[in-house]
Amino acid sequence: MDPFKVLHLEAGADKQAVKRAYFRLIRQYRPEEEPEKFKEIREAYEYLQEDSNLVTAQKITQIPTEFRHPYNQVLEWIKKEEYDKAIALCERVLDIVEIMEFRILLGKAYILNDNSGKAVKLWEGLCQKDSENIEYMEQLGKAYWARGWNNKAFQIYCTLYEKGVKNLSFYDNFMDIAAFQESTELVCRISLDVFEYYRSLENHAREDAESMSSILWTISEYVQARDYEWLLGHSDEIFDIMTETPLEFSIYEDTIMGMCTALSEILEVDEAAGPVFFKYGEYVVSNENNISERGELPLTIIKANMEKIKIEKDPLIHEIIKEASNLWYGLLTEKAAVRNTADPEISLIKELLGTGIGDGAVYDTLLYMVNDLKNILPGLQRVKKEYPVLRQAMGEFLEEMLNCSSQQYLFNKYEKKYKKLMGYPSGARLMLSSAGEDDYDAYENGTYRREEAKIGRNDPCPCGSGKKYKKCCGRNIV
């Protein structure tokens, strides 16, 4: 389809002419009367509304008619990432006739196909012929960057920046190069220019949003570790960019998850990050149904972090529960990592979880909680109602404690498992005491050692009652 021909325009018309032609034609071809014609006009208009498509369409009109189909074929192969085919066709055409548009496409395909040596040679040649051509300079910078000649790439991009080049593709690459050069001040300055430029755009095409997402990812990853106060100060502006445009959540999914992670880390050193972190977190949770499979692990971590912050400030939650919650949240995220990560390095965690290597810490924590069960029960009931992530993490243990009819029975149950896991001798006892954790702590580390000889179950009870030990003071010993 030739969009200019569909809109009854001369080849190479600008965007204003495209808009005027569109509104003129839709009054002539109404959708209810000629739906197919209206659809064709609408598609041509929407195609040319994207700047990159308009430029491409204008370039095609400058190509001899017999080479327009091969040109479109190259564009299609590049779009499908079939770079070898695109390169081969460009080279065949250029063997027949020198057409600059094919030379430019060939240089871009070389970069995309990791043929950086050929790309450098091609773009250096074009820059020598036209040293003021901004497109050639930008592509040469990309070729240098792909080749690993970082200083040369940085110099070219700095020159283009000083010349006032403004487009999201340029900013995206320049941001990466500036971050690699460890130029924090420059990264922050570029970021402000990007924000201003993005707001100035009349429309935000999908490719614009994709470039912006990549730029914001670099900002959150790089700046957070070097100038978190700057990132915190501009986090609302970043949030607005990612949420104000009605595009698919998937475009910004990785970036907004990354910002949540960065803000949670900032929160550990600066409480001012709290409100912003919750703003991002609540937005993520509200889009839970749109999150991809790869986002399940970050989502679990974000939910856990939000709950941890809330639970720490909840006056109705006992301190013992707050302390124990760190273990439960940690186990939940570890299990989520194993379930949602294909990385071979995760196999060690999977193996450890499978062998129950962390169960000792689990039962240690359970004993600690049950030791003061009566005092923490109201908090556990609140956990069940108000903290779904912690409720999920504790699982059946929460229900056991909430429905417990005998504190001693539950302590003995967990104690038996704990002793087995930790290698205590069968006669060792961990004491349930109304005094609280002090008596418990005296036994939780290391092996209990009896100072006197063991009393047999049929021996006389040392209390002097005259009864056998098993019928007297020893009747409750497991």
TrEMBL record:
<dbReference type="InterPro" id="IPR004027">
    <property type="entry name" value="SEC_C_motif"/>
</dbReference>
<dbReference type="InterPro" id="IPR011990">
    <property type="entry name" value="TPR-like_helical_dom_sf"/>
</dbReference>
<protein>
    <submittedName>
        <fullName>DnaJ-like protein</fullName>
    </submittedName>
</protein>
<dbReference type="GO" id="GO:0006260">
    <property type="term" value="P:DNA replication"/>
</dbReference>
<feature type="domain" description="J">
    <location>
        <begin position="2"/>
        <end position="75"/>
    </location>
</feature>
<dbReference type="InterPro" id="IPR001623">
    <property type="entry name" value="DnaJ_domain"/>
</dbReference>
<dbReference type="Pfam" id="PF00226">
    <property type="entry name" value="DnaJ"/>
</dbReference>
<keyword id="KW-0235">DNA replication</keyword>
<dbReference type="Pfam" id="PF02810">
    <property type="entry name" value="SEC-C"/>
</dbReference>
<dbReference type="InterPro" id="IPR036869">
    <property type="entry name" value="J_dom_sf"/>
</dbReference>
